Amino acid sequence: MRAEDQARRVERAVSLVLRTGVGLSAAVILLGLGLLVAKGIFSNNVRIDAAIPYPRDLAALASGLLALDPASVIMLGLVALIATPIARVAVSILAFALERDWRYVAITAIVLAILVAGLVMGKALG
Amino acid sequence: MSIFLLEFAQLLFVSLVAGAAGSLLGLGGGIIIVPIMTLFLHIDFRTAAGASLIAVIATSSGSAAAYVRDRLANIRVGMLLEILTALGAVTGAFLVSRLAGPVLFVAFALVLMYSLVPTGQKIVSELRGRAIAQGTEQSAASSRIALALRLEGSYFDPAQGRVVEYRLRRIPLGAAIMYIAGLASGMLGIGSGVFKVLAMDHVMGMPIKSSTATSNFMIGVTAAASAGIYFGRGDIDPFVAAPVALGVLVGSMLGARILPKIAGVGIRIAFFAVIAVISVQMLLSGLGVGK
Asked: Given its phi and psi angles, is residue A44 left (phi above 0), alpha (psi -120 to 50 degrees) or beta?
């Protein structure tokens, strides 16, 4: 019975991670859109995907955020969204560990490793 | 009206419609929004795919919580197969920058046409006034791999008024199809739900309800695997991705909650026809016809 309770708790944790991630990122994206309006970017007469620069790595993202650059704020929301399923996988490792299902701890760790390797290689191989 | 505002409004609107149409047809928003962005709004394929992946993550994560709670999604099966979809997605995300545009257009058109098959079958059976056969014959036999990895499950089916139990088989073939699903996702910016359901339902013998729920549960991770690479490469354009993600998210919620109450088979056929035409246009455009 206690194992069942634990499994339930973990399911709730997984749900919470997903909901919080989506909610937070949507809020940050909306904030960024508000800044776009405030800074008058909507009245720019340029194509949406062409002329306005946006941060392309975490360092540029950080400095953009400090300057309250709208593109950087939106990007923060998008990065949070990408991180949400990755966080879900990380929480699942904990879930299987609580169930003492070591085989699935290993399987889930492999998935997390592939996700992280993809991020790192994406940067390196461009 | 400035060009920026006009294009922003266009993206928001078509994403809203794509999300609604997708959920009504049982397709992801990505498979509809990418052709519209590339064909009609003339957005670069990689930028379109990156924005679509963001939308896929938003819709999948938003709905996965409910599936986990209802225990329809099989978390073990999902985690195991995510190894393959994540590997496929990483491969696909690298391939997209090395393949020429026309190849991507043709590949997309073929995947889109294939994705329309189950929807078409459903519409035909609706017109004939009977339910489609659900899933494949359940097999009591379970393969050795399935036993070792505890690939079984059960859920309560209110329609049948009983608990449905199942065991899986043909894991290697199912896993191979999952790799292809991941490849298509990373290359084309879609969730590849149709391939995932094919692998679990037709090949591995999982009941269709669990297959669909597990597929939805997995899609977010598959999309995150390639979206991370798109971001690392600087291919996520926030000005494009923001309206697309919000539009598809809201559209699919409206589609799931409101449209079934007001939409008959007629609107389904209309959406189906429009998307079928778009898939042909995508194919022609990839083959260089009509330019």
From this structure: beta
Question: Please, which residues 37-76 of chain B have a Cβ atom closer than 8 Å to chain A?
Answer: 43-44, 47, 54, 57-58, 60-62, 64-65, 68-69, 75-76
Token pair of B84 as six digits: 């393959």
- Alpha-helix residue ranges (DSSP H) falling in chain B: 3-25, 30-39, 45-70, 75-95, 101-127, 144-148, 171-188, 193-197, 208-232, 238-257, 259-262, 265-287
> Which chain B positions have a beta carbon within 8 Å of A56's beta carbon?
234
Instruction: Name the residue among B81, B107, B109 with its Cα closest to residue B217.
Output: B81
**Residues of A with CB below 8 A from B93's CB?**
118, 122
Q: Quick: pLDDT tens for B212-262.
A: 888 888 999 999 999 988 988 888 999 999 999 999 888 888 877 776 666
Number of structural domains, chain A?
1
A50–chain B Cβ distance below 8 A for any pair: no
Give the one of A15, A21, A29 whose C-beta lies nearest to B69's C-beta.
A15
The ipTM (two decimal places) reads 0.88
- pTM here is 0.87
Owning domain of residue A81: 2-125
